[in-house]
Amino acid sequence: MNIINYLYNNKKISIDSADLNLIKNFKFNSITSNPTLILKSFLNKTYNKILNLFFIKNNKKKIIDSDKEISLYDKILIFIVGNLIPYINDKISIEIPSRISFNYNLIIIYSKKIIYLCEKYGINKSFILIKIPGTDSGIKAAKKLKEIGIEVNITLIFDINQVKKCFDYGIYLISPFVGRISDNIFCKYDSGVNFVKNIFIYKNNNNYKTKIMAASFRNINQIINLRFCDCLTISPIYFNKLSKYNLKILLNNNFNNLVKFNFYNKHSSKLIIEGLKSFDKDHKRLINLLSTIINNL
User: Fold this and answer.
1) Active site includes 165?
2) Structure confidence by residue, pLDDT tens digits, 264-287
3) Which homologous superfamily is 3-295 in?
4) What global pTM score does this model have?
């Protein structure tokens, strides 16, 4: 058995992609998406047929992007989700725009808007996680959303303060960014892997229910060493590579080399801002692309 089959059998694999063709061919447990991945899929023409169908049904020019009102972007997003749902076993994470990540009220409004559209188009909200960055406002909003029956994936997790709040609030899922931590914080062993190992132990020792989805990998070793997580979201490039590795490799990877330390540090704020800027840049590119399409209809 190869590693990818092991992950499949244990229902641990999520794909960090919006590539419709890839998702059709493999029954992933879940899907994580962000503006960067959706833009990439648009640019490689994955959604040509779907977009043509969408614009036939929505040929009136409307608001393209909005925080409060239902926009064309929102409808396209949910239309795409509706086309992906049949090919997954569990949940799809739908990300809010980065621009509202520090605005508690707008996060609540936008999240409700997503769920409203999902239910309007026949998508049960049990298949949906609202993907919200781990800012203070985002985590507080996630707590409120949980209280009204909307589950959340808190992304851009970089330090123990974020983690403890999410655990205490009973957030459904958190996504620590392994590779970005490793890129910025150095120790004897892989700092990103050690961070996730530490929070996994902390979770189990305190009987928290929040699921941990390791994300943002830089190499195969990180994926193998974090196979114990509730879920791993991996990019297509690593998905293909993992299929070539034998399961025996796992026997030599455990909790050895664990360095116990907590990240109460200056790096997390910087990493959150960098992540938000990147997502916002690609969101704007995506909106410009949609504007171009609409203006040429």
Assistant:
1) no
2) 456 788 889 999 999 899 899 888
3) Aldolase class I (3.20.20.70)
4) 0.89
